[in-house]
Design brief:
It is a multi-pass membrane protein. The protein is mostly helical and 139 residues long. Helix content is 85%, strand content 0%. The protein has one domain.
Length: 139
């Protein structure tokens, strides 16, 4: 029994690990390209956070909540793995503190409020639209 539980945990870890590799690479490519285009790392982080929030909304709409069903594999791979390593709240926090340190208080506050509102809004809109378009239940 204990071996079976350990094997299940190990398979979950490997699924999340594989997804994390994909998400980390995607984060690097997207954030670096956006930052290079707009001249500051905060823009890349903002783009990753908003797109990640949108994707997690779509994932929640299509996959549903995590469970012991076969959808659990998709949740572990895509939500916990890919999007867990793709989104960048830790980078967001550090870059916001750097803006405060550089005495760019308005930019720091705009980054906080803008990121929060855009990410929550993107996730909510994506989730609702995905449910509607897939014929699922309404919010």
């Amino acid at each position: 029994m204990a071996g079976q539980v350990l094997g299940e945990y190990l398979s979950h870890f490997l699924i999340v690990f594989a997804g994390g590799a994909i998400g980390g690479i995607a984060r690097l490519l997207i954030s670096n390209n956006v930052a290079a285009r707009f001249g500051h790392a905060a823009y890349g982080t903002f783009a990753v956070n908003v797109s990640g929030a949108t994707l997690i909304g779509i994932g929640a709409g299509l996959i549903g909540a995590p469970s012991s069903s076969p959808a659990n594999f998709l949740w572990l791979l895509l939500i916990s793995g890919v999007l867990g390593s793709y989104t960048t709240v830790s980078s967001f926090s550090l870059q916001t503190l750097q803006l405060f340190h550089d005495k760019r208080t308005s930019a720091a506050m705009l980054n906080i409020v803008g990121s929060f509102m855009a990410c929550i809004g993107a996730a909510a809109i994506a989730w609702c639209l995905t449910l509607i378009l897939s014929g699922g239940t309404q919010w």
